[in-house]
Amino acid sequence: MSDKAKWYVVHTYSGHENKVKANIEKLVENRGMEDIITDILVPMEEYIEIKDGKKKVKERKKFPGYVIVKMVITDESWYLVRNTRGVTGFVGPASKPIPLTAEEIKNMGVQESLPQLDIKVDDSIKVIAGPFENFMGTVKEINNEKRKVKVFVSMFGRETLVELDFDQVEGL
Length: 172
Known about the structure:
The model has no long low-confidence stretch (mean pLDDT 86). The chain starts with 5 loop residues before the first strand and ends with a strand. By secondary structure, the chain is of the alpha+beta class. Strands 10-9-8-7-11 form a five-stranded antiparallel beta sheet, with no helix packed on it. Strands 2-5-1-6 form a four-stranded antiparallel beta sheet, covered by helices on one side. It has helices at 17-31, 75-82, 102-108; strands at 6-12, 37-41, 44-51, 54-61, 66-71, 87-90, 124-127, 136-143, 148-155, 158-165, 169-171. The protein is built from three helices and eleven strands.
């Protein structure tokens, strides 16, 4: 189902983009809709600020008031996103979502950065992010579709199976 997902633009209250992103992610996780709503982005851009003669690289929202969501439109997914606190509607006529074209996605600088893992089952890995950071483990299962890996980590003298995102681990 997630291969049918397209990018849609959601209008939000200005300044609420990150809250909307977090709220949608929480709702998706709670309802088990990860295969229907696959990605949520708040596009950012870097800029240089010069203050007191010093250059600082800062980030700002590329499109204030908008969040970009990759999803399969169903009644349930539309309702979930549309009724998230801070969302005012989808961009499109009469709030009917219209997917972005490949050219629009490219022009907006929205590229799907998928971390590539150079590991296989039974390889040793190190957890580099999340609650198990700095733990070492052994790969039990790799799910490329969901971009997850199941790893046995040694905790309190016992092997415990944990599921992690690709970007939370690195091979040794």
